[in-house]
Amino acid sequence: MSGDAPARPATAPRPQPSRAEKSAARRAAILKAALDEFCEKGFAATRVEDVAARARVAKGTIYLNFKDKQALFEELIRSTLGAHIARLEAVRIENGQRMRDTIEAIGLPMIEAARTGRLGELMRLMIAESGRFPHLAEFYYHEVLARAMSAIRRLAREAVREGELAGEQLERFPQIIGAPVVVTLLWTTLFDKFAPLDSRGLLQAYLDLVFRQDAPKDKHPKGTRSGSRRIESRPSTVRNS
Amino acid sequence: MSGDAPARPATAPRPQPSRAEKSAARRAAILKAALDEFCEKGFAATRVEDVAARARVAKGTIYLNFKDKQALFEELIRSTLGAHIARLEAVRIENGQRMRDTIEAIGLPMIEAARTGRLGELMRLMIAESGRFPHLAEFYYHEVLARAMSAIRRLAREAVREGELAGEQLERFPQIIGAPVVVTLLWTTLFDKFAPLDSRGLLQAYLDLVFRQDAPKDKHPKGTRSGSRRIESRPSTVRNS
DNA sequence: AACTTTTGACTGACTGGTCAGCCATTTTTC
DNA sequence: GAAAAATGGCTGACCAGTCAGTCAAAAGTT
What we know:
The first copy, chain A, is mostly helical. Chain A is 63% helix and 0% strand. Chain A has helices at 19-45, 48-54, 59-65, 69-89, 99-116, 119-129, 134-162, 169-172, 175-190, 199-210. In chain A, helix 6 packs across helix 9. The first copy, chain A, starts with 18 loop residues before the first helix and ends in a 31-residue tail after the last helix. At the A-B interface, helix 1, helix 6, helix 7, helix 8 and helix 9 of A face helix 1, helix 6, helix 7, helix 8 and helix 9 of B. Chain A binds a DNA duplex through residues 16, 18-19, 22-23, 26, 47-49, 57-61, 63-64, 68-69.
């Protein structure tokens, strides 16, 4: 990381990829190929040879980068999840923003990622294989779920204080917030072919239901500075299909 | 099935199981063993020999009853789901009962079945393998989900009319009702070991949230005969843990 | 700079083991 | 004792992981 390659022409972007560069690129290619293959066939039914072929690499090369098939799989999950965790943590939870909007800002991209990317299938993979890799489930719980749960708890507590929420249900069971996203992700990957689902419609409907603006009960109407944008009253009515 | 065994002593309950009886018993034993094995290891990693051993049967016997491993698997899913469908359809949907109670009557046993039985794992199996057996997903959709969805739709329409529900969200997206159960089932099988979840508490909290008895709006107070038991006001408040 | 030596990433044929499905033989049933 | 059912050893395919050999890039030499 000191001075790059010794004498790079600087005009041509990548004239001679150094050995290290090529190696890193290969490793990435292998992980990408592994993601595709494992998603398609699951752990047991995936052949290391096929991963190699898809990565345009010889089988042996995989064993230079990963101890064995299982290590490849776990590394794959870890790195892919890592990317998603990073994305999630980049979502700024603005103080004073309505909880509903925050949830939407997190949920909609995930729903989208299930259609365009591999998020849904990754989730399916986790569910499918966590029986055989229990510490992956534990890793997932600690790195993702536990954090998400406590973040939701915090949001819910705030929302109750601000009058956006009525009961303490979400604080006690933050899982409830994740439920529609999980179900949508699963539906998309499993049944969408023959029973398409309007995912974002579902999420909207769900949030309309949970964040019903009932008697706003306006506990402390002291011009809460945090409630600056309490306006933005989206219609929130449901047009029937 | 005509006249039982020719001369049964009538005192001993099962002195000579007929050939057909024994055969059926074996088939059942194989399916039971297959359920256990497939749930534990998934389709690809399960060995037919192990299923045979667990069923106290020789490997060849399995091939007398099922064309091959895949047929065994599909038959297993079909028959096990069949049992669950039967259980579900036995739930009488009483006219005039509150939707909340109906949902509870269906959801609680399912949650229980995830802990005591193999419902959660069966679901995991479906999710895991439906990639490789797409027509199983389709079967599941048509035999279970489509029916459930339309039943929920019907309930929701009724509930809106009776004033139990405010919006039409559940009618448009019946999946929303299934979401907490699905998530609970998954959580139970994946994370319960190191992050136990109060499943029924979650379901209660969820229903409290969705069926909030807001302004009862009492559209037609014409002494609705269907609302006979509109009393039964459970506290529905949440004691904080 | 040209030429030589060293390094280690990469390859793919090979091995040892596993397992689905078959079928010749044995056991059970009637 | 004939027919049906059950058995379990066998086979051929398949595949994870290995390793001796190759070669391009890096380091060293003149």
